[in-house]
Write a structure and sequence with these properties.
single chain, alpha/beta, Rossmann fold, 2 domains, 7-stranded mixed β-sheet, 6-stranded mixed β-sheet
Amino acid sequence: MATRSEVRTALRPCPICQGTRVDPLHHQSFVLTENHPLADGYDVVCCETCGFVYADTAVTQRAYDQFYADSSKYADVQTGTGGGDLPWDDRRLEDTAREIARLVPGKDALIVDVGCANGGLLKWLSRLDRRRLVGVDPALACARAAERFPGVTGMVGTLFSLPSELEDADCIILSHVLEHVRDLEPALRAVFEKLRVGGMLYVEVPDATRYADFIAAPLQDFNTEHINHFSLHSLRSLLESNGFVVRHEGQKTIEASAGVPYPALWIMAERCASQVTGGTTAIECDTELCASIERYIVRSLDRISAIDAHLAAELARLDEIVVWGAGQTILKLLAVSSLARARIAAFVDTNPALHGKHLRGAPILSPDALGAFPQPILIGSLISHEPIARRIRELGLPNRVLFLQP
């Protein structure tokens, strides 16, 4: 925790209690693609009033909405998650759908998945005989992908511009959505208005109290998109101060990618007859979340130091490299490690939304373009390095391959 002399006024009021006095815990920097709408850095802070931990960024909700509409990494069914096209992702979605179906038993219940990505959760609800299903996503490609599944209607929209025809829903799903949302109180107000009285809201988010025990990549949860870090306590406080009564809750471990466990938590809450707001409900301070985040920061920074030492030794012998990957790990390392001083001829990435953009002046290309580059290839992922190495071999490339760690 920061010392009292470091306590300052937030750029972004606490999303839960609207407090403005915060303790800075960590400054996170990124190198972003040109014309990127989000911030290239922010402080991770702890609210002095309620103990919530979040990114103190001045980026507007409108900018986040535009980013997800234009640059969704979930839009491609081959590389994005949320559609169940990958076996590990499909298992996660099936488990979540079965839990929701158990708690919302009516087969004719109107169930709306906001931020549906490629619709995999709706696919499983359809298989469980749920007949009235709607997927809402800011990316048109995601809304269309959701309609691959029987009985699913896809609509373009956000939490702040939900389709007008959605009224009196029996259940609204926000699965791994609220960690991305800057303005939480208006978002929940919009959801409240679309639910019938007694309707249910299912929320699932990463479990910040267990980040330190699930570090696949250091500071993986301090990224350009995850700007809220919840405990069960803080998520419960948010929902109860915005017109919902918690009925069921729990922790779970999901797969973030094949074989990589990741901590999550969930709440099923019931809509009250009238909505109260955070300003009128007393919120009990979360006394554990900040300490959990501090452990995560310390362990992550130790990992980054080890990665940087390895990179410095490898890069000292090379004139120029190609980097495979333009994801969150590389965006951080370009800002805070020896990689910042490397000559990079190009980046390659499987995400088609990145192709044609530039990162630190170098183009981001499809892996199929690698044949034009003889330089050593640095695999910029700590989670997917093995499948990427296999892909390089399958492409028949003679390039030397480097990794982020020995």
